[in-house]
Design a protein that fits this description.
The structure holds 2 protein chains of 2 kinds. Chain A is α+β, with helices and mostly antiparallel strands. Helix content of chain A is 38%, strand content 20%. In chain A, strand 2 and strand 3 form a beta hairpin. Classes of the chains: A alpha+beta, B alpha/beta.
Chain lengths: 596, 635
Amino acid sequence: MTSVFKENPDESNSRKRNPLEEVRQGRELVKLDGWGYADSGFVFEENIVSFVGERYKIGKLELPYFTAWCTDVLGVDFSQPPVQRRPLDIPPPKVEKRCLEILEKNGVGFCTEDRYRVFHAHGHGLGDIYAVRYGSIGRVPDLVVYPANQAEVELVISLAMEHNLAIIPFGGGTTVTGAVNCPDDPRSIISLDMSRMCKVVEIDDRNCTATVETGITGKHLEEELSKSGYTVGHEPDSYEFSTLGGWLSTRASGMKKNVYGNIEDIVISFTLVTPRGVVKKHFQAPRVSIGPDINNYVLGSEGSFGVFTQATLKICKLPDVKKHGSVLFPDFQSGFYFMEQVSKEGCKPASIRLIDNEQFLFGQSLKAKETFRDRLISTAKKFYLARYCKFDLKKICLVTMLFQGEKEETERQEKRVLSIAADHGGLDTGGENGERGYTLTFIIAYIRDFGLDYRIVAESFETSVPWDKTLSLCANVKNRLGRECRTRGIRHFLISSRITQTYHSGAVVYFYFAFNHTGITEDPVGLYTELEHIARQEILGSGGSLSHHHGVGKVRKMFMPQTMTQPALDSFVALKNHFDPKNIFAAGNLYTQSKL
Amino acid sequence: METSYENILCTRLEKSDFAWVTKEYKPPRRQFINFNESEDILNSAPVTAVIEQLSGGDVERMRKLKKNGEEILKELCHTKQLHWVRWTGLVLSKLLRRLYNAVYVNPEGIENLRNISGSTPVVLLPTHRSYADFLVISYIMFHYNLPLPAIAAGMDFKGMAGVGELLRNCGAFFIRRSFGTDKLYWTIVSEYMKSQLIENGTLEFFIEGTRSRSGTFLSPKFGLVSVITEAFSAGRVFDAAFVPVSVSYDRVLEETLFARETEGTMKPQESTSGLLKALSTLKENYGNIFITIGNPIYSSQHIPRLPGNPAGNRETAERLAETCINALVDLTPVPLFSLVSVQFTTSMVSQASYIQLLHTVNELSDLVVGQHSRITQKPSLSTLKDCLTVHKNLVRVCNGTVSIKEPDQGESTTLNLQMLQIYTNQALHRLAAPATAVLSVLLASADEDDIIEEDMNPVLDQSSLVEQYYSALRLVLTPEMPALPVNFRDGIQQYQTKPLWTEQQRGTCSVNRSTVTILLIRLLYPVLKVYSCIVHVLLSQKCNTECDVIQTVRNLGDKYWYRHYFRNLSSQSNFLKKLKKDNVIVFDKGCRVKNGAVLEETLNFLNKCLATMKNFDCDIQSGCLQQTVLCHSKL
């Protein structure tokens, strides 16, 4: 892949100025114009799609079935050349020399190189990647600052206060809500990159906590803790790249929340540096009754109040056993009732997910070419399913599960879950299928980027919804989007839903929506956004929430007035005005100005 | 808005009826999915909640209510089976061929419906003029390979041995005509309908609630509409498309029954033997059927579905129901014979020359077409002759003169006039707009004469007198004549192809005295007269119940030449409904006038209208019939 960035003429100069080699090296590992590691991804060569890179379990692999799937389902025409990339036109940085001098004098790392400014100008939503690759990126931060500790963060904030600059905190940049995109602001914009603050400061065995700096990525955090036999267990799909600071800012949720909880259950205390000063509790108690909890009204503030620098987290011993499982159901409805019962009986596997038929078939397509023997077996399996079990291959759905914990307990749990599954007509299909499902989770974003080159636009969106409205919500969103696509002449599209989490009172639904825009529009992202908004309105109308874990950011903030009453909304504005009266943290996410 | 039609009796490929009913029936693949969570109606959350509430926790009562619920459901549900539909279709095919020349359908509407029913749950809303309506609709659905609807029918058929079961097997389910405040009943009906909407994908009910005996549109019943909007608001379905379907008959099967009923003979109880007897006597020609399928009205475009808003808002359902009825009005073509009958029902002369009749019909037809509406057949010598033949039970053509036949011995003397009135009423919704306009201009120019011409606004100005009178009239007439344009200037003036009035210097304006304007005024006169009588009776406070009021007014009409109009009870109940809705009168313990001032005002206004009309056409009251003829000779 060729770089789309113009080389900065005084690059050698700036390199000399910055003590940031380690940050740069880390950044070289990841793509600048797409999701994930630079060495991993999908390519189309010699008439077949393959996955390259050794980092994932699916390994380096040719994918004949997936190639066919792309053509059949999404109408991809591989004979057409990929969409042409276009170099970006990046405005020169606009920042007062005085400010740079102050940073330099105090030894704070910064950089004004184009390629890093661009990297900090976007997240990983469809619109972001599309803009970076083929379009125009819009406003880019003028300066990227890499603080090494809390003192440096405070210094940057006071500099911003004094010289009237805007700050956007930046963690892993994996947002899909436009949260790190630059607002329309006349001031110079600083992207505050927290990646140098990534130390595990302390592990407290007695109290089962770890104190960690917020720039640490999920993967790094787990690696560090596992050295001492611990885990935090917070695993959002982006955990390879997303950071603790980002989790706190968006109220993130992890795949294994059934065992470890969501971020708000995991975090015990934190340090938030705001223009008004440092927000922090003076103690570290398991639970308190001293008024409205700061944790609750600051988590999820999406970088609007200040920046998280450190947090103390609950940690657990690494599990003895990890075991995957999967159950095949004749249709989505029976799989769903199974999920509901499992949740209500309180026997919670670490993770349990239901994927619909579309996604099941998609997952099956991501297999290596079958040998003759394999093909015999899989034909026999299909025959068994269709004839003996009377499953309709066009309707079957898969539940994938992950059990973990103490050996005996895990086994007991698995047995109970499988017996509930049998009551609902499910068929145990073993661990391998389950594991595939979870591997796919990490691959899917690479596929999205691959599709872009072949005129497929795709994105995921999620919601949480009470049990009684879950099924109708899934149907409503699929039906509405299907109708909207057909009326717009979109012939090749895919709408798939999956139940990814369950709670006592409801479930989390995740939608994938993709379509082929060949010959439909010159502005696929604009069309996609329009359709996604229609889908979101349908979700809200069907009783779903605005977001379960992606957050609101900029792309969904117009829906905020539909989510709660005006006095409730106004409280956000009041908090914002309290912590950041000069709007230094100017990302403009959520509902932080009374006029949207 | 030119609609093209095709005759399905001759366009179908299978020539024999038998080949046709046994053809492959393949409705379009449904592209929407639905998870029906309330297949088990009795154990669905809303029904369980009502049982809980009604029983007050008493176990014995709960058991009884459950049992009651089972019976309700048994009485309610349909048992659609395709082979029953086929065999009923065979019989129907034979009957249609015998009775009708043609069954016309607009293919464009069919294609439209095919697209919609693939992607959205559909609610068909047909007009209700005859018992044949829903059979005819299922018939064309089968013919065009469209999904067969589940049909909400009134309980009347259920009593007919065998017929009830037959209809059930063809997809009809039966709702009681009145169930008072039986909460359990309503909840079960509502859940059943929602479940049918989801499961079956196509539902059908009559928005007018019952067959319109008078031929006018009845004000919409929004109960069933609200069931659907509730399902939408609560997120049970992503959308529901209401599709208006107008079924228009050249000659209604039940015309004599309806006329007798209006004349005061009681409606006979439906029975199977009665039906068989009726079928055996049906040997005459009933002309054509015109079925026009309109554009869908999507719930999603008319109902805001915002979180935090209460689900199933009654007002939104009412508004949507009105939108639907207006769409039906606009969709329904005017039968040619309606224009013929206007000539007879607006005068006491019971005959007219053939040429004169054609002339009148042509003039009226221009008015209808001018509003972008259509007539079932273009008036010409031959179509007129055909249509008079179809109605030869009512009119006789002899030596170039057309005259009303005398009713048979033993029937009410005005029976045939009453039947003609049914047809006149079918044109009323289209002629109402020009008629109202003419009256507004009349009223305004009457005022002009009183005021000495100084600084007067031009009569046809936006805020002019005409506009004011028009909106006042529209307010009074709306329940009776839905879909009147909102204002004079944009809604009416521009559609008139024929000058009904002339603008004069200084912007004043006067109505041209012509056959058409006189007809229009005479058309409106009885309507307003009925209203004024109702208000008069209400103000006198002599009547206690709604029935009393209607009966008293009915008797008042006996002395007028247009007494047949006074017997049209739906007009009266429409007006009373409006007064109730505006909270002017209340019927609880006896009739109570809540807002006497408004009533007085209405009476004054109505009297003023009537006086103006009388001024224009002094024969209205006396009923001397020569006037129209005279006008003609002038032309």
